[in-house]
Each structure stands twice: as structure tokens, then as C-alpha cells.
Design goal:
single chain; 20-stranded mixed beta sheet; leucine-rich repeat; Leu-rich_rpt_typical-subtyp; membrane; glycoprotein; repeat
Length: about 550
């Protein structure tokens, strides 16, 4: 639902004025730009050709500045910092300003931004501002989009949201991670904003939701997130049920308990319903399966119990379904045939939900309609049994497969090598036997590979030049508790990306494996009980590798 941000690479315009060019150069002068994003901002040229600048085609006035970045984890020290120069006030026609996910090191949001009367879009999400949100932002009467999500390392807060009353045109508001614990007026103001469509108040330390009665709620609200506020109450406030146009509702990670409120069935337009990390109990209500527009249903980590109705197949628009970690929940006869109607399904997670089903039957049902769409299948601790067959190879777009802690037996199917999109595989703590398939080495071209086949009964000889032939991105490999022989040629070069390697109980010896020397990112190694008799020197002398984990 939330808008995306990033650098603007294309430019438009008929030539900017000298005054606006000088304003931009002054603005740049107060910024630190380690990656030279603004290297084109120089000289006496046309600023409409500069990167991240958009001008009006006819007048040449600067109308947009796209200086936002993707999430900071991808960019580290590549962000803009420094301070914001008031020269921005010279950009009289600026309607769009995006500074998201830079790092301004906790400086306050400049109050002069409230004087930029032409702004209709202001994104400051994750930009490293701190302190009190200036009330002057309430002067931006043309503002339609406002994002002020706080960055993790800095504290942004508001003692009152009364300034919002001046933003009658606001359609999008994101105050996630802003401390609103003292802003007791938040609800009275927000629900009466006539144009508000999307509201995100995640991690806002809101401790109480005021009750409302006979209030004319904004009928325009389509998205509401109150995620992770830990409200001091166990019931969902009744006014939520009157937001009839909601398509997105996130009430996750709060203290709501009891039965899932039946009034939610009145929100017939819902596409996303997230009730995860709460304390809802009793059974999953049958009316829930009447919300035919649902694309995402997340009930992860509640106290739900009882049997899941086969009517769940009525949710034919489902893309994402998570009922995991509801220990009393079960499907009476496993995944029902009604799942054959879930043709849009991309992610299915039922960890710790009792299925008591043959895994081959389960895959056959899911494969009828979702073999081409399913990307994530997570079924740990679901009481699955039987053998994995070549039917698993149908799911060619699967990138995550978690079937650990079940009773799956038989050999690993050869067709597993056809699942070239896989990057995370966990088949640990099953009863899988037979030899390690050479087809495993065909899983290539992935960002990174995480494999766990530990605590099974796989045996035989592994020739890494064959079995790991194309796994150049292998990062994590857990295979302890099996009984295999690892025979590597002296010149074998493993994936340099390996960070964790666990070959406990494999026969690797008797010599110390010299191929380990090339693993520059290795952080954890377990070669215990691996038949190595050769000694190696550490800083304190000689010790046996068999005693090292």
C-alpha cells in the first residue's frame, strides 16, 4: 500500500531560472554527499538537466526533488547528510520533496519546511531526523502525502497532533516509529480528516485507544496500520469496524485477545488482514472465509485452536496465508481439496499447525493450481509423513522450502535439482535416507543459498566437485547427524561465500581439509566426529579438530 521512493534518473524541463539554480547550489553546499549523487549539480548550466531534479515542461520552474533512497540497509554510507539549507524557500513552485532514508544524524526537522506553501508531497521517512515534529508543517494546506517514519537510531516525537487540522487535503500519512505516547489527541484529529486514505501508525508507543461513540468517521480511509503499539486493552475498538472502505488493516503485535471480532466481517473490501502476534483464541471463525477479496491473511502466533474449515478454499484471491504458531490449530484431514482453488497462492506458512498428512498428497493438492505461483512453502512441525517424490519438481518458482521436524522419509528426489529458484531449504530432523542426489549441484544462479539437511539418515559419498558443482553462492550448509563421506580433490575450490559449515559426523579426514583456507567469510565451523586425526596449530599450541565445534 505504501508508496516507494528512490533516486530520479530522468529529467524534464525547459530550463530553470538563475535564482532556482542558485538555491539548489546553496542547498547542495550544506549537504555531505559521499557517493556524489549530486555531482551534476555544478556550474551555470540548466538545473533541469541535473539528476533528481524535475522541472515544469513549460515554465522551467523546479517542481520536484527526488533525493530519497531505498532502505538504508542497502546503502550504508552512501546516504546524504549534513543540514537543510533554507534556500529551498526560493523554489516557489516545488510540489514534491523526497529525502527518505538519508541520515541527518538526529537534527530537528527544519521548521522552515512549513513555509513551502506549494508542497503537496513531503517524504522524510527514515531520514535520521530527531526531536519534536514542528507544528509549522500544519501550514502546508496543499499537502496530500506526508511520510515522517522515524529512523531506528533517532527519537522523533509529537506531544500533540493539533497541527494536522490544517492539512485538509492530506490523503497519505505515515508517522510510524514516531513517539505519540503523549499525543492524546491523535484519534480525534485523524478520523475526521476528510481526504485521508492511508494511515500508518506502527511502533508509535500508543498505549491507549480512546473509545468513540456516534462519531462521523472518515469514509475515505482505505488503509490503517496500528502495528506494534502494545495497547493496554484486549479488545479491538469498535470504531474500526465502521471503516467500511478499508482494504488494508494491520492490528498485529498488540494485546488483543478473545475471539476474533465478528464485526470484522463487515469490512467486505479487505485485501489484507494482519492479526498476527496477538492473543486471539478459540477457533478461526467461518465468516472469515466470506471475505472473498482477501489477498493476505496473517494469523501468526495467536492462541487459536480447533479445526480449520475446508471453506478456507473459498478465499480464491489469497496470495499470502500464515496460520503458524497456533499450537491448538489443525486441519482434520490435512490440506483439503479446496486448496486446489487457490490459484494465486505465493506464500503458505502453517508451522506447528497439525496436518497429519502424507507430504506427497499435500504437494499434489497444492500443485493443481499453485505450482507456478508458489514461492514460499513453510510447514515445519506439521506432523507430515510419507516420501518426497518427484512431484516437488513442479514448483519451479519456489524459493523457500521449510519442512523440518516432521516424519518425512525416503530419499531426496532427483527433481529437486530442477527447482532453480530455491535459496532456502530446511529438511532437518526428518527421516530422509538414501544418497545425496547429484542433481543438488544444479541449484545455481541464486543470491545466496541456505541449506539444512541435518539430523536425517542420508548416507553415501559426496563429491563436492559434482554435488556442489554450481552452488557458487552457497552461504550456509547444515548437514550434521548424517553419515556421509566427503571426498574433495586437493584443488577443489568451495563457494567463497560460505559463512556457516556444519559437517558433524561426516567423514572428512584423516587429513585436515586444506580447502577451508579459502573461506574468508567463514564464521562457524563444526567438523566434530569427522575422522580427522591430523593436528593443527593454534595460538596456544596443538589441539585436535575433533574437539572443536
Amino acid at each position: 500500500m505504501k508508496r516507494k521512493c528512490g533516486h530520479w534518473d530522468g529529467t524534464l524541463g525547459a530550463g530553470c531560472s538563475a535564482a532556482e539554480r542558485e538555491a539548489l547550489l546553496k542547498f547542495k553546499a550544506d549537504l555531505e554527499d559521499p557517493r556524489s549523487w549530486l555531482s551534476s549539480w555544478v556550474g551555470q548550466g540548466d538545473c533541469c538537466t541535473w539528476s533528481s531534479v524535475v522541472c515544469d515542461n513549460h515554465t522551467g520552474h523546479v517542481t520536484q526533488l527526488h533525493l530519497g533512497l531505498p532502505r538504508p540497509s542497502y546503502w550504508h554510507n552512501s546516504v546524504l547528510s549534513g543540514k537543510l539549507n533554507p534556500s529551498l524557500l526560493e523554489l516557489k513552485y516545488l510540489g514534491y520533496l523526497d529525502l527518505s532514508y538519508n541520515d541527518f544524524h538526529g537534527i530537528p526537522i527544519p521548521s522552515f519546511l512549513g513555509l513551502m506553501a506549494s508542497l503537496n508531497t513531503l517524504y522524510l521517512d527514515g531520514a535520521g531526523f530527531g526531536g519534536l515534529i514542528p507544528h509549522q508543517l500544519g501550514n502546508l494546506s496543499k499537502l496530500q502525502q506526508l511520510g515522517i517514519e522515524a529512523a531506528a537510531d533517532y527519537v522523533l516525537y509529537a506531544d500533540s497532533l493539533s497541527w494536522l487540522s490544517g492539512l485538509s487535503s492530506l490523503e497519505f500519512l505515515d508517522l510510524s516509529k514516531v513517539d505519540l505516547s503523549n499525543a492524546s489527541d491523535w484519534l480525534d484529529l485523524i478520523i475526521t480528516m476528510p481526504s485521508l486514505s492511508e494511515l500508518y501508525l506502527s511502533h508509535c508507543q500508543i498505549l491507549h485507544i480512546p473509545p468513540l461513540a456516534n462519531v462521523n468517521l472518515s469514509s475515505s480511509l482505505s488503509a490503517l496500520s496500528l502495528y506494534h503499539n502494545q495497547f493496554g486493552q484486549t479488545f479491538v475498538p469498535s470504531w474500526v469496524f465502521h471503516l467500511k472502505n478499508l482494504t488494508y488493516l494491520n492490528l498485529a503485535d498488540n494485546t488483543f485477545a478473545g475471539t476474533i471480532p465478528a464485526q470484522l466481517q463487515n469490512l467486505i473490501s479487505l485485501r489484507t488482514l494482519d492479526l498476527s502476534f496477538n492473543y486471539f483464541n478459540h477457533s478461526v471463525p467461518n465468516w472469515l472465509y466470506g471475505l472473498h477479496h482477501l489477498e493476505k491473511l496473517d494469523l501468526y502466533s495467536n492462541k487459536l485452536d480447533g479445526r480449520v474449515s475446508t471453506e478456507i478454499g473459498n478465499l480464491s484471491s489469497l496470495i499470502y496465508l500464515d496460520m503458524s504458531v497456533n499450537y491448538g490449530l489443525e486441519f482434520e484431514r490435512g490440506i483439503p481439496d479446496s486448496f486446489k482453488s487457490l490459484c494465486q497462492l505465493r506464500s503458505l506458512s502453517l508451522q506447528h499447525v497439525k496436518l497429519n498428512q502424507n507430504v506427497s498428497e499435500l504437494l499434489e493438492i497444492l500443485g493443481v493450481c499453485a505450482s507456478g505461483t508458489l514461492q514460499e512453502l513453510s510447514l515445519p512441525s506439521c506432523q507430515l509423513h510419507g516420501q518426497l517424490t518427484d512431484r516437488i519438481g513442479m514448483f519451479k518458482n519456489l524459493n523457500l522450502l521449510k519442512l523440518q521436524n516432521n516424519s518425512i522419509s525416503g530419499p531426496l528426489p532427483i527433481s529437486s535439482g530442477e527447482m532453480k529458484s530455491l535459496y532456502h531449504v530446511d529438511l532437518s530432523r526428518n527421516k530422509i535416507n538414501g544418497r545425496f542426489p547429484t542433481s543438488f549441484g544444479a541449484l545455481a544462479g541464486l543470491i545466496y543459498v541456505d541449506v539444512d539437511i541435518s539430523q536425517n539418515a542420508i548416507h553415501g559419498v559426496v563429491l563436492p566437485e559434482i554435488h556442489f558443482a554450481n552452488l557458487t553462492k552457497l552461504a550456509y550448509f547444515f548437514a550434521s547427524g548424517n553419515h556421509m563421506v566427503f571426498k574433495a580433490k586437493p584443488d577443489w575450490v568451495p563457494s567463497r561465500h560460505i559463512q556457516i559449515l556444519n559437517l558433524e559426523s561426516w567423514y572428512v579426514g584423516p587429513g585436515f581439509p586444506h580447502w577451508l583456507k579459502g573461506l574468508q567469510y567463514l564464521s562457524s565451523l563444526d567438523l566434530s566426529n569427522s575422522g580427522i586425526s591430523e593436528q593443527f596449530l593454534t595460538g596456544s599450541g596443538a589441539c585436535r579438530l575433533d574437539s572443536i565445534i
